[in-house]
Design a protein that fits this description.
Blueprint (H helix, E strand, L loop, with lengths): L2 H18 L7 H12 L8 H7 L14 H20 L5 E4 L8 E4 L9 E3 L40 H13 L15 H4 L4 E5 L2 E7 L5 E5 L7 H10 L7 E8 L3 H8 L1 H6 L4 E4 L5 H6 L1 E7 L7 H5 L4 E3 L5 E4 L4 E4 L12 E11 L5 E7 L2 H10 L3 H5 L9 E11 L2 E13 L12
Parallel strand pairs: 4-8, 4-9, 9-14
Antiparallel strand pairs: 1-2, 2-3, 5-6, 5-7, 10-11, 11-12, 13-14, 13-15, 15-16
Helix pairs in contact: 2-4, 5-8, 8-12
């Protein structure tokens, strides 16, 4: 096939593919397709980094080996092209294809007289007008009846990561009115002696789109076992049928009680003005190794710190994340705040606190609630010098677990009761042994 014929074949099929709707509504796949069509006219195909920057708005932080956004969407586009030719058939002996291991569109030509697989021929493509690099906004146009809410899949629309900035401002203005005595008490005094940088981790929810057969987002989804973009891409790679359904929207949401909890921690952040604040969906194992860490959020948002949070103790989180299990006492504590609709009057919730040594001798603390009332209650309790005096004193190399019962109303905690406070065995926290 001559270059001119290849250009004509590619342009013709590219337009048929666009008109067919197989790529879905304008978004990630359509931007990727248009970009590849345009760049196929170049002598050198684009690199993974080029695509990440031009199509998916990744900046200098993009690391090809760690961020699979390009590979996953190339895989999705390849499957959509296969579907197009299965449904609509070939217009001739040629078809548009994405060779495996490459980031370019080519026209595959079946050799005359052969019945086997077509042989790819590298050909240039006619240029087309590419779309802008903005991220899709279809999620913002969803009507309330298209938002899925369930125990496993939920949409928290109350607050985004912008709450972190609001909370940071609140912490700065609140610091002079909050007692500073808790920093000198066990278990917080270790942060005063620490040399590692401080990392405040917010329990954000990673939200992705669930789409129809044409790629239109029908609902926003939260899965408790998918806490980051990498975990979403890995799950999609392991389940081919989900390439048509799940879409990365780069959305993260926070419970509103995180802002209240950060206000209680204002003195700690004031003592460490260079502390970083990031979402749990952005935490890497290296961060847990190299930083002193304080997690603030729901039990269901623990992400990478869930397993070390409970090893070596008597408490674990239940499968629904609205439940704390006390294995020693043989009882469970279920959050009433999880009930829909909630009961009238006071609601009983639960808050969990633990502090333990990290893998390199650093320090990790977790302030977590089943829901808002529990989180607000535990954050206030473990930063109260009066409450801290009632907890066991621990050395820097020891670990503690604490459980509070919190009663409240309309998201505000009104009464906090200490249920469990004891040391954990730190020797099993960073091992491969299973949870209780």
């Amino acid at each position: 096939m001559t270059d001119a014929a290849a250009v004509s074949a590619l342009s013709s099929d590219a337009e048929r593919i666009r008109r067919s709707g197989v790529l879905g509504r304008p978004g990630q796949l359509t931007r990727l397709f248009d970009f590849l069509v345009e760049r196929s006219a170049d002598a050198d195909p684009p690199s993974e980094t080029d695509i990440a920057s031009e199509v998916f708005n990744r900046g200098r932080e993009f690391i090809p080996g760690q961020d699979a956004v390009v590979r996953v969407n190339i895989h999705r586009l390849r499957k959509r092209l296969d579907d197009f030719y299965l449904r609509h058939g070939l217009s001739g002996p040629d078809r548009l294809a994405l060779p495996r291991g490459e980031y370019r569109l080519v026209v595959e030509t079946a050799a005359e007289g052969e019945t086997g697989d077509p042989t790819p021929a590298q050909t240039p493509a006619a240029r087309t007008t590419s779309q802008d690099g903005l991220r899709p906004t279809s999620a913002g146009k969803l009507s309330p009846d298209k938002i899925a809410i369930s125990r496993r899949s939920l949409f928290l629309g109350a607050a985004g990561l912008g709450v972190a900035h609001l909370a940071g401002w609140g912490a700065a203005t609140y610091v002079n009115s909050r007692p500073k005595g808790f920093l000198d008490a066990s278990p917080w005094s270790v942060y005063e002696r620490a040399a590692a940088p401080l990392l405040i981790v917010l329990g954000d929810y990673y939200i992705f789109g669930d789409t129809d057969e044409k790629g239109q987002v029908l609902r926003l989804t939260r899965e408790f076992f998918i806490n980051s973009r990498d975990e979403l891409y890995q799950y999609m790679m392991e389940n081919d049928d989900l390439h048509y359904r799940y879409m990365d929207l780069d959305l993260r949401y926070l419970p509103t009680s995180v802002a209240t909890a950060l206000q209680d921690l204002a003195p700690l952040m004031a003592r460490h003005p260079s502390a970083q604040i990031i979402g749990a969906s952005q935490v890497s194992p290296q961060m847990l190794r190299d930083h002193d860490v304080v997690y603030v959020g729901y039990l269901s948002g623990l992400g990478p710190v869930r397993h070390p949070a409970f090893r070596g103790g008597r408490l674990t989180v239940g499968a629904s994340f609205d439940q704390i299990i006390d294995h020693k006492a043989g009882r469970t504590y279920d959050s009433e705040a999880a009930l829909v609709p909630p009961p009238q009057g006071l609601v009983r919730d639960y808050g969990y606190f633990t502090r333990f040594p990290g893998p390199t001798g650093n320090t990790i603390s977790i302030i977590a609630g089943a829901r808002d009332i529990g989180l607000s209650g535990v954050a206030e309790a473990v930063t109260s010098p009066t409450v801290l005096k009632s907890l066991p004193r621990i050395r820097d190399d020891q670990a503690i677990e604490v459980l509070f019962e919190v009663e409240g109303q309309n998201g505000a905690n009104l009464k906090t009761k200490l249920l469990v406070a004891q040391q954990r065995d730190p020797s099993t926290i960073w091992t491969a042994t299973p949870l209780n």
